[in-house]
Amino acid sequence: MSEIAVIGAGAWGTGLAIVLGRKGTHGVRLWAHEPEVCESISGRRVNEQFLPGRKIPESVRATTDLATALAGVQTVVSVMPAQHCRQVFERMRPLIPPGALIVSATKGVEEGSLQRMTEVIADVLAQRGGTSALGRPGESAPSLSSRSLREQGGEADFPIGALSGPSFAQEVARGDPTAITIASQNEDLLRTVQREFSDSAFRVYTNADVIGVELGGALKNIIAIAAGICDGLGLGHNSIAALITRGLAEMTRLIVACGGRAETMAGLAGLGDLVLTCTGGLSRNRSVGVELGRGRKLPEIVAGMHGMVAEGIFTTTAAVGLARVRGVEIPITQQMHAILHDGKSPHDAIYELMTRSGKSES
What we know:
The chain has 362 residues and is an alpha/beta fold. It folds into 2 domains: 2-208, NAD(P)-binding Rossmann-like Domain (Rossmann fold, 3-Layer(aba) Sandwich); 211-354, N-(1-d-carboxylethyl)-l-norvaline Dehydrogenase, domain 2 (Orthogonal Bundle), CATH 1.10.1040.10. The chain has helices spanning 11-22, 35-44, 66-70, 85-92, 117-125, 169-174, 187-197, 210-232, 237-257, 268-279, 284-293, 298-303, 312-326, 331-342, 346-354, and strands at residues 2-7, 26-31, 60-63, 75-78, 101-104, 160-164, 178-183, 202-207. It has an 8-stranded mixed β-sheet, sandwiched between helices. Helix 8 packs antiparallel against helix 9, helix 8 packs parallel to helix 10 and helix 14 runs antiparallel to helix 15 (346-354). 51% of the residues are buried.
């Protein structure tokens, strides 16, 4: 029986642990930052804080100790919030068994470095004496080239992949049919994750475009906040359809500029995840937007999320930084940044978007 560590017991980490545990062919360790989450899972077989009402298989063992979670595992699934990824992997680095596969299921971009999660992970695992091959923590990478050794698969000792696609944790845990994608340049990782994670309700496709898959999963959260704002303002289907379409075009421009593939945005990690997050009532990012559209302030909204994270709030700043480095125009994202971080009125943001100078759709 293979051993898999899921690092992060939020809703999505718990949902993935349920998927892996219900197969009966894995031993699953689920690391929780919060002791009360660990106690809830161990004692009542449910994560009452982040995924209430969903039974967790007995094969899933919860722990708050990283050494216990990682001892002897073959696969490590990283599901912590993006802005905590570097710190947690610095703690994990001496504990991960050599040769273990690393799967990032976090949809975000690190604010300071503008790195995707697989880059952050590879950066930390490659560190020697506190200095990384891609730059010091908190600094922008000296080169954002898609040709970087670590961007597309990580160090040889630690193959790295990105798991993304349209997947609400509640529905995954309930057993609703779900399709996602695993992206890596490492063929062994692709085959192993596809085989080990797939079951009759959870279908995993493979993709070689790590950049496109990761950035698609991160950038769609920004557009989802915008979709929620439209809903909160009482706007109709015309507005949402236009937003999703132009949001996809904006995402594609930035992803291609960063070295990803345009065709990836027609797949699960692009259009699929974008539509889900912009229209689904379970989307935390969309929910933040709804409340902003109704006139509530961001600090008040975040305070009421009870520890849940809407990654799009942080990704907006990173996306603006990436676009600036790459010289790409991203008007929707820029307006979302102004609303989230500069206190701009949603009405004013929409007016500016609608009165921009005329453009060709292409």
